[in-house]
């Protein structure tokens, strides 16, 4: 679906629309903290089928590829966050010290979302929360503090219960792979569930973007990164 991107460009050109009104220019690398495992996981305790597991990875996932021109059309066709499967109501924790920047702001990921600003011009977004976070904008939070409850992107608590976690620059224009920023045993965590086995192939470059660590940064509104000439699994409607 190309209409979404076209509408976004039109809105930007006219200087109107949510995106144009809300978002500042992307920040340069020089003012953004480098990844140094400075953050923690958004859930406490050990992973497992009754607590939390990694679901969809960040990046060029097969799921994002299938919806690259629709749901992810404004994010270069890429899943710009990490999905953690968890029962509804699981306490969600701040991944680092920071300040609450937005409660149910205009970032989608319904039914509720939360943004926390961190040092180094980084912001974390917690999406698909079950209920509105009780925190107020401007409040300080510490790493590991409970900031909300996980929910379901479809609102049922049985169809797709998970937390969508993003790491962005403060302008909300750039989206980073959270893995090198979060201290966790990713290799062990990836052994359970489908995490790390669900990336779309470009058979013309079959090693590209096939590991959790090697996924590309995303720029809001940039061109699609995965309009592959030879995709696998095949594109539902053909390659183009
Ligand atoms: Zn997600």
UniProtKB/TrEMBL annotation:
M23ase beta-sheet core domain boundaries: 78-171
Keywords: Hydrolase, Signal
Leader sequence segment: 1-21
EC annotation from Swiss-Prot or TrEMBL: 3.4.24.-
Gene3D superfamilies: Glucose Permease (Domain IIA)
Record field: compositional bias (Pro residues): 231-240
Coiled-coil zones: none
Domain of life: Bacteria
Molecular function via GO: hydrolase activity
Region feature (Disordered): 208-240
UniProt name for this protein: M23 family metallopeptidase
Organism: Deinococcus oregonensis
